[in-house]
Specification:
Length: 246
């Protein structure tokens, strides 16, 4: 994979033997799909964003139809792509992200999942994300549990995210119980009347869209923290990448 921070898209292949198994299928994914998106507040008290390049992984982007179950895997791949582009410890002969089958195989190898997990359509969440990023990239993750309710989300989650982006700069995975849709979090913006999260949604399925169209359709957008399910708990997977930055 050619490393070029000025390109708006990037071709990729998967780790190891999977390339041969997939007949050397190469895809082109958009890079930095939040670029150009307006801030949600004209005069924020505090604004913290990721820094560095990443690719937008979503349902079906590699030809595998994972609608209904693959959102956690796709968010992990987006996080992995950031590590690939921004970590001094990643060998550039390696590839941008592990495939869905390789993520499943890694979780079985680690003993987190039984052998029957291979080839299944079982969901995975923030805890599995922490295991996978450590397995493939030696990047430890901090997993934060946030109880439901506006106060916990506005205080605990928002403050954790501000601290994370200021120190570690990398994308975050967010998921919950009642709200069990995986989300990639790329930033947080706080004003006098609440906070917003910059969300990259892996649930898009279809032909590749330009980032402006993804933004117009809401696949990449700022969402008010108060719009989240107040009865759901949420977990955050925060890659501890401060020491990995170039």
């Amino acid at each position: 994979v050619e490393k070029n921070v000025n390109r708006k898209s990037c071709s990729f292949i998967y780790w190891g033997d999977t390339v041969n198994e997939r007949n050397e299928k190469i895809e082109t994914l958009l890079k930095n799909v939040h670029a150009g998106l307006s801030d949600p507040l004209t005069d924020p008290v505090k604004r913290s964003l990721l820094r560095g390049d990443y690719l937008y992984f979503h349902y079906g982007c590699d030809g595998q139809d994972d609608r209904g179950w693959g959102c956690g895997y796709r968010t992990i791949q987006t996080m992995a792509s950031w590590i690939y582009f921004n970590s001094s410890l990643v060998t550039k002969q390696e590839t941008v992200a592990p495939s869905l089958p390789q993520i499943q195989k890694a979780l079985v190898t680690m003993g987190d999942k039984p052998g029957s997990f291979l080839g299944s359509k079982e969901w995975i969440g923030t805890f599995e994300a922490s295991l996978v990023l450590d397995f493939f990239y030696d990047v430890p993750c901090k997993v934060v549990h946030v109880r439901g309710g506006g106060a916990e989300l506005e205080q605990v989650a928002v403050e954790e995210l501000h601290q994370h982006f200021e120190k570690h700069c990398s994308p975050v995975m967010m998921g919950g119980d009642r709200d069990n849709s995986s989300k990639g979090i790329l930033g947080v913006c706080t004003g006098d009347r609440g906070s917003y999260l910059l969300v990259v949604d892996p649930h898009y399925y279809g032909r590749q869209l330009e980032e402006t169209e993804l933004q117009r359709r809401g696949w990449v957008s700022w969402k008010r923290v108060s719009s989240l399910d107040q009865s759901s708990f949420y977990n955050l997977c925060l890659p501890q990448t401060a020491a990995e930055r170039k």
